[in-house]
TrEMBL record:
Leader sequence segment: none
InterPro entries noted in UniProt: Glyas_Bleomycin-R_OHBP_Dase (IPR029068), Glyoxalase_6 (IPR041581), VOC_core (IPR037523)
Species of provenance: Catenuloplanes indicus
A Gene Ontology molecular function term of the record: lyase activity
Protein's name in the database: Catechol 2,3-dioxygenase-like lactoylglutathione lyase family enzyme
Length: 121
């Protein structure tokens, strides 16, 4: 059976993207996988899906077909995480397809890659 081995994001400023995503997820650089054109980030506390950041000259799509959903355990944690992510370089994205009472907020990383912060409570 197939399983997701890694999530790969294309970025144009690799050091900036590494700082953002390592800070956002509490991930560390996998020294064994670091190269000039890509970096593998792994969970600090052990098992989990690696995030690969690869140097890419294309720009992020305004309405991407694929994005990450980052889960939180309630509205207070969601609000705190959104604030923290914006503080480390993320940006809130106005999204015209949001339902009336959304359980998610759309953000973008330092490269414009979209992701959602979801209240799962």
């Amino acid at each position: 059976m197939l399983r997701i081995g890694a999530i790969v994001l294309g970025v144009s400023d690799l050091p900036r993207a590494v700082r953002f995503w390592a800070g956002a997820l509490g991930y560390l650089i996998s020294e064994a996988e670091e190269r000039a054109d890509w970096v593998v980030l792994v969970p600090e506390d052990g098992p989990g899906t690696p995030l690969v950041l690869t140097l890419n000259s294309s720009t992020a799509e305004e309405r991407p077909r694929v994005h990450l959903d980052l889960f939180t355990d309630g509205p207070a944690e969601q609000a705190a995480e959104i604030t923290r992510l914006v503080t480390i370089g993320g940006a809130f994205v106005g999204w015209d397809r949001r339902p009336g009472e959304p359980d998610f907020a759309v953000l973008a990383d330092t490269e414009g890659n979209r992701f959602c912060v979801v209240d799962t409570a």
